[in-house]
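Re: weekly structure request thread

Next one in the queue (155 aa):
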Amino acid sequence: MKIAEALTARADLQRRIEQLRARVVANARYQEGEEPAEDAASLLSEAERDLAALRDLIRWINATNARIDLGADGTMTDALASRDVLRLQHSLLVDAAAAASGSNQPGFRQMRSELRQIAALPVAELRAAADGVAQQLRELDNKIQQANWTHDLEE
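Done, posted below.
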């Protein structure tokens, strides 16, 4: 199984567990004299089995990611950590540029006597830096996706 397939299976298991959780909660109590739509205990057992399978799958994915060498980007685990940080960095730069430009605060001065708002940060530089980070993020994400489809899951 390729890593990408394992990631899809992980997402499917996570969705299934969430659906089972909702069904357990919906059927955990019922009115006297009525029957619940589903057996909550059975659903809970099913969820426990899926949780164990999810734990094993996550372990295999993580162990495989720790072994995959992506060259200058380190292991797959290193690349995933870098990608997470690049996403946060990009978000920070975009938000800072938006705040400094005032685009996130609509409303203009109505009269000359009102105080002007002045940018404390260089908006153009922030946007250029955000574009650079976005480029790095795309390139790293492409490497990660390629590795996901070319490497087999190691058990």
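The CA atoms of residues 63 and 154 lie 7 Å apart. The mean pLDDT is 93.
Next request, please.
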